Amino acid sequence: MKQTAVMAVAALVGLLIWADLRFVVSHQDSSSLDKAMGPRPNILFILTDDMKASDLKYMPNTQALLADQGVTFTEAFVTRSLCCPSRATILRGQYAHNHNVWTNVPPDGSFWKFHDQGLENSTIATWLDGAGYDTILIGKYLNRYSLYRYGSDAPTTYVPPGWDQWYGWEGVYRDATTKYIINENGQVGAYYRSDIHETDLYARTAERFIRQTAGGAPFFMYLSPNSPHDPAYYAQRHADMYPDAQLPRPPSFDEDDVSGKPEWVRNEPRLASTEVNKLTTLYRNRLRALQTVDEMVERLVHALRDTGELSNTYLVFASDNGVHLGEHRLQGKGTAYEEAVHVPLLVRGPGVPKGATRSQLVLNNDLAPTFADLNGVQVPSFVDGRSFKPLLRANPPVSWRSAFLIEHRRSAEDADILTIPDYNAVRTSRYLYVEYPTTGEKELYDLGADPYELTNLYAGTSPQLLGDLQATLDELKSCAGEACKTAENGL
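Structure (tokenized):
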């Protein structure tokens, strides 16, 4: 009995000492932690706007400095193919049905929806800032930032929680034909594109930050250029590039037979020659606009190398969604089709194998938990995504998600997606299955045999396959947190 009592007391003392040590460690300053654990890595996250994965072939610096020096994810997707919902997902690691930012404008979306729900109080910025990181946002934040709820101009000095430095784009990109506004740490600055293209301004700001903070606390940089979003403003020095670039015309371009598609697609007319010409011009301008992004990548890699930070920095390159340029007769985004949901994703950094590819299904849901995991920061239980840090190893795990959800909610206020009915979809490495609850229509595509999504197989598919897809979709469309990960592994 005495021996048992002594052991119990010793165990209790041990627990108290362990708890006290945890308390001490958790309250050390970040420099002490860095000395104890080694330098924590920086994260430089570059997020383009409406960029297709195929656009990378026109960005030689990005290919040479990121893809060739790191991992290319060939199966990277967004779970809601629209700017503001996708960016809300990136900041929080949640499906849209959990953060409830569905569109780019109020009342169902925009900065205001994100802000009013208090979602800014727990994002990747607050998580890393709380762990001692210097956090900085440069560029686009969320649609309608700096505007009154219903669109009128209202320049703001508001900086969301978690950001130590802030250079946020204000207003509507399409309206900024010559002049644009940046909230620079609470001071509203006006610039003219004739003097400096906004991507060049972002690059200058980012480079200055890297050089001035080198050797200090680790940093998290969210660098979000507006390019190549329509109307694809480009720097004048690139005006003569790609004069003969041809608009891609895959088999889905101006799709001839859409009889198997849902009614909203069948209602789309064939593309007139004038529309094709406009799309061609836009395509060439998109390629020109991406050149400033490509030059920015080179500039920042050189700055990191000059300051000795490159070997300790993860560089992550992605886009908020893709875009239709005539495929299935469509323009814009919001769909579950490949053109809208498939995005580029490149990662270079410490221990990341060079020139590797990964074909696992990775999502915009995964970015925030990955950034946290790269630095040993625990994420809140509300996070739906998973860290893809294991996929950055030389020998990645065999087991990974087998399915994910794509979702959409229609809004009369958002003209970009007005014609697309509500839908829920499940995507696997082989199949895309879509349900439109308001119309009762359904789509199924075998992506192995039909990568351009031309033939809807729903009517003639085996009940077993449909049952499996429907069951997974039913779980995914209302999942939250760990339940999403379980449902994603269901097929």
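Residues 1-36 have pLDDT under 50 and may be disordered. The chain has one domain: 39-396.
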